[in-house]
């Protein structure tokens, strides 16, 4: 990221703060007043022209002020941003909500999405972790018919995944129970991505009596871990985007709502945040989704089990108040991590 002079940095910071607050182009006279006329309007105009040439600003109209570009927002987030930290009101709301005793992981994710939307006043999103990174806790077999069995996988965090499989022989209750005991003792606390290797190993040994059912377990695992795009996404607050100045055009608002419906593309975009723990900010065109060109996404990872990570965050206009929202997203992710590891 290229550097700016002290004066350029100051002018850019003033423009960013003014535009974030007003959503209106910023002129030199406005900036001069903000710094008590220490620099003339002409001096500020020259600096703004330099910033425009370098791609940090653009002029939407011939006689208008300037608007920050995506490049300017990236510089602002990386170099100038000073997070404010969650306010007392926000902290109190989060603490009150998450003191609730949850019975299911899904309830935590639903509440996290709802609270984030209400605190940030933008759309929120929570994505459950990839199954293959979670830890296996136990398995249950439910006989539905002579040759059909429902396999129930339970993760250490309490998430449940079910699949039906067909077997070639009529397996009795004793066989199913023995298989259940074997799996639970042999594979407890093993990541789902490692389960297949363990099962293959045992099939090569002395598990002939279980091989038919183990094959069904393997097929079920392939289905569960192979369909990453089947993960649940919890979205709340989409209606809060109505009235945001950037989406006063109904066609842009429709595009935005269509983007929320494109689950597979959203997952690919949000999965980029799983590469490293912590806060990530995707600004405008960085998302590679044309429907999101005027949007930014602030995300943070939350942890489930020992090595499983999910993503939560807020989606709003590029001129979001990052200094306020980043700490809220970060604090929510930490709270969700704590809750998911005590459910």
Tell me what the structure shows.
There is one protein chain. The protein has 343 residues and is α+β, with helices and mostly antiparallel strands. The chain has three domains: 6-80, Winged helix-like DNA-binding domain superfamily/Winged helix DNA-binding domain (Arc Repressor Mutant, subunit A, Orthogonal Bundle); 88-129 and 231-340, Beta-Lactamase; 132-229, Heat-inducible transcription repressor hrca homolog, domain 3 (Enolase-like, domain 1). The protein is 46% helix and 18% strand. It has twelve helices and ten strands. It has helices at 6-22, 28-34, 41-53, 70-80, 88-97, 105-120, 173-187, 192-203, 211-226, 250-261, 263-271, 322-340; strands at residues 57-58, 67-68, 123-127, 136-145, 148-155, 160-166, 233-236, 279-283, 295-304, 308-317. Strands 7-3-10-9-8 form a five-stranded antiparallel β-sheet, with helices on both faces. A three-stranded antiparallel β-sheet has the order 4-5-6. A hairpin with a 3-residue loop joins strand 9 (295-304) and strand 10. Helix 5 runs parallel beside helix 12. It is elongated, with a radius of gyration of 26 Å. The model has no long low-confidence stretch (mean pLDDT 85).
């Amino acid at each position: 990221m290229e550097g700016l002079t002290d004066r350029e940095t100051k002018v850019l910071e003033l423009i960013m703060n003014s535009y974030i607050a007003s959503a209106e182009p910023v002129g030199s006279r406005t900036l001069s007043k903000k710094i008590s006329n220490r620099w003339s309007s002409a001096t500020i105009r020259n600096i703004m022209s330099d910033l425009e040439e370098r791609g940090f600003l653009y002029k939407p109209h011939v006689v208008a002020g300037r608007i920050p570009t995506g490049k300017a927002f990236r510089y602002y987030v990386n170099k100038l941003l000073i997070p404010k930290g969650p306010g007392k009101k926000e902290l109190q709301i989060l603490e009150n909500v998450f003191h609730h005793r949850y019975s299911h992981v899904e309830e935590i994710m639903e509440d996290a999405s709802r609270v984030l939307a209400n605190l940030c006043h933008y759309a929120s999103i929570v994505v459950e972790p990839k199954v293959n990174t979670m830890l296996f806790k136990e398995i249950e077999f439910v006989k539905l018919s002579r040759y059909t069995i429902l396999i129930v996988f339970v993760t250490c965090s309490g998430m449940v995944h079910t699949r039906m499989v067909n077997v070639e022989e009529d397996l009795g209750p004793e066989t199913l129970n023995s298989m259940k005991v074997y799996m639970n003792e042999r594979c407890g606390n093993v990541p789902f991505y490692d389960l297949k290797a363990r099962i293959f190993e045992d099939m090569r040994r002395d598990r002939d009596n279980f091989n038919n059912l183990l094959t069904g377990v393997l097929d079920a695992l392939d289905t569960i871990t192979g369909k990453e795009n089947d993960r649940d996404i919890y979205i709340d607050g989409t209606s809060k985007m109505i009235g945001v100045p950037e989406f006063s055009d109904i066609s842009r608002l429709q595009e935005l709502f269509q983007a929320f419906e494109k689950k597979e593309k959203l997952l690919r975009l949000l999965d980029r945040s799983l590469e490293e723990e912590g806060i990530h900010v995707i600004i405008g065109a960085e998302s590679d989704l044309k429907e999101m060109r005027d949007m930014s996404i602030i995300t943070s990872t939350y942890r489930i089990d020992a090595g499983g990570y999910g993503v939560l965050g807020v989606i709003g206009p590029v001129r979001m108040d990052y200094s306020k929202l980043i700490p809220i997203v970060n604090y929510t992710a930490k709270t969700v991590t704590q809750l998911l590891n005590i459910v």
